[in-house]
Amino acid sequence: MRMRGALRLRLMQVFSLRGALLFVVLGGIIWLLIATGRTVPSASLLSGPDLGSPEVRAQIDIFMPLGMLGMTLLTVLLSTGPSFHFSPTEINLLFVGPFSRRDLLLYKFIAYAAGAALSAAIILPFAQSPTGSALFTFTAAFLTLVFVQLNSAAVGMAWQAVQGNRLARLKWPVAALVCALALAAVIHAWVAPDRSVHDLMSDLRHSWIGIIILMPFIVFSELVLVEARLADMALWAALATLINALLLWAVIKLDRRTSEVSLLEHTRLSDRWERMKQGGSFWATERSELPSIRTAPVLWGLGPIAWRQAIKALRNSFKLVAVFIVGAACAGPLSSMAGISITDERGLVMAFVFFGFILPRSLICDFRGDLSRMETYKTLPIAPWRICMGQLVVQVLLSYLVALTMIVSFLVFEDRLGAPLALALAAFALPFTFLLYAVENTIFLLFPAKHIPMGRADFEFLGRALLEFILKAVVILVALSLAFAVGVLTLTMLGTSLALSGLAAWATLALIGGLATIVMQHAFKRFVVAEAFD
Amino acid sequence: MTIAGHDIVKDPIAAKRNLGYIPDDPRLFDTLTVWEHLAFTAAAYRVANFQAEAEALLQSFELSHKRDTLVHNLSRGMRQKVAIACAFLHDPKAILFDEPLTGLDPQGIRGIQQAIRDRARKGAAVIISSHLLSLFETLCTHVMVLNLGQCRRFGTMTDILAEFGQSDSNSALEAAYFTITQDAAMKA
Which of A15, A94, B62, B85 has the largest CB neighbor count within 10 A? Predict the structure, then answer.
């Protein structure tokens, strides 16, 4: 019934005018990306690795089982409870119904399997198997996704079952020992001239002890890498299905011993999701009390709004900001290793997708996270432009910090990026970021909607996200072109230094950012709380 | 329309500075503590030296022990109290309540009714929107009956009860309400 309900919801979305338009746009863009990727491989952003090439196959053979083992160990270290989660609605409706615990777990497993099937179907166009068989790719992706889910649940439950036991006390010493061994191995590989970390991992994977430890995971890497023969595929698929069935059986058995922990975990996760719906972060602090900050700054009316967003960033998104900053710091060495420069076409496209799509969708400290609180902002005795500026300050500064970290990382690790170019990038990044979030917020205020999808394959959400990105990209490109044109014009007319034309271009971009804020202010004024979808 | 002499269209900032609004389901900032909500309100409404008044409000709404609690950990009734404390902090001349007693326990209901009376006594105009007719009987001096978005009757409580409130079984205001809305429906 739940699947029928989900299907009905998607059909209703697709058959509404807005949903149909967004679905067509989404489908068109995906088709375009796939078609472009097939005809011009170098232009493809979404096509996956070529599984036919021996290098990629060798890497999957080594890293996939090791990666799965790493995930299992992380589950043991970090998991706070079993990972078969029931929503509050499911608890209210199903837990009081005439169903055994086994029935409920099977229902949940079927829901997960349906999700895995859908995910496998989405992966299909991007990761064709070496044979080109869609059936092989789908089977491998589906069984692997089900395994990841069941393995994490079974391992989490097994660990919860031994909690309180003397064995559980060994958790952190054993983890420290494993980390120390891994570190020693990495240092050894680094010091030895003819050995690399890759060689070390390859040796571990192909040693007899490695094969024994990694046995269940190797089945799935073999399934992904299976050649054209149907018999091989059937063999590995049968083994994978057997492993999944055993894990499901283990989950049902272990569930009896972890019901209490399971209920606590459901409550914790439900609270987190509820907070996300209210515009919070999944990683937000779970503390209930904190030392209060005694006063808020006024700063001509900007103060309280910016203060509230700064506190939100600190308490709600601190870990996320840290992850982005660490990621930005690693961008230089990683791109250097991959041979991608920030100044070439691919590097620029990747940086634009990161700053224009991934970062704004993940880090939200402005109007977009406050849909349910717009009523409060509308009643405040603060001029709309001050409220808009207050909302933008923290978001822009945090994003700018990530951009600066990335620029410094490229400056240190990339030879082609000199100090003058890095300085210019740092200077232009500020008005660019400001314009980006002014446009982002204006779109949100004109067409308000929550930034959380309603389950998998929410066509309206995906279509809207892509449309927004395209609209933003168009505005940003027009603004950058204008700024560039003004810079060139200044250089042509005055013929003096590059610095003066750069300054003219910078001022133009900042001016366009200012104009975007005026539009944003009008959008805020005409925002009608009663009409906003909540 | 004016609030404390300020036109809501021509001078909205001054008008809003004199208005306190408490929605039926207050959406507070989930990352702020109770005290920080008061600090935010003080900065937004430019209330200087708000600490003493904030302490008094926390005391009167029995929120003192919750000052450092993040509001998403509060019950619905507690959140309602925080919203009311924030609305009272800048001493507004007009206060607009939307269903003020939803989700409150008997003690909370009594406390908020008392707070409303105190504000009215100090000279604030208190406007309450509610479906709980008994609330009006205990608190209000004037009543406006709205039906399908239309004003059906406006007058003092005494006048309306004298005109319509004749009933043996129900409360007088309930009888008045049904008489007024049913008359309007028949005329329509």
Answer: B85
